[in-house]
Specification:
about 60 residues; alpha+beta; three-stranded antiparallel beta sheet; 1 helix; 3 strands; about 10% strand
């Protein structure tokens, strides 16, 4: 792709995994429709934002 780095990230489970470093708890019960609430640490956010954050951090980690 014309000199643009690209990393493929599997999207499965990204909106049910806590994005907080040190937690990263993954469970289907973390997602309540559009709301994400981590059952382990209590982190709350929009589930789509959580998924996008996890895709980003996973992609960065794979490139490192």
């Amino acid at each position: 792709m014309a000199g643009i780095p690209f990393t493929r990230v599997e999207a499965a489970g990204t909106s049910t995994t806590c994005p907080r470093p040190g937690c990263r708890y993954r469970h289907a019960s973390n997602r309540h429709g559009r709301l994400f609430v981590c059952q382990k640490c209590g982190y709350k956010n929009n589930a789509d934002i959580v998924g996008a954050t996890n895709v980003l951090t996973t992609g960065i980690a794979q490139d490192a």
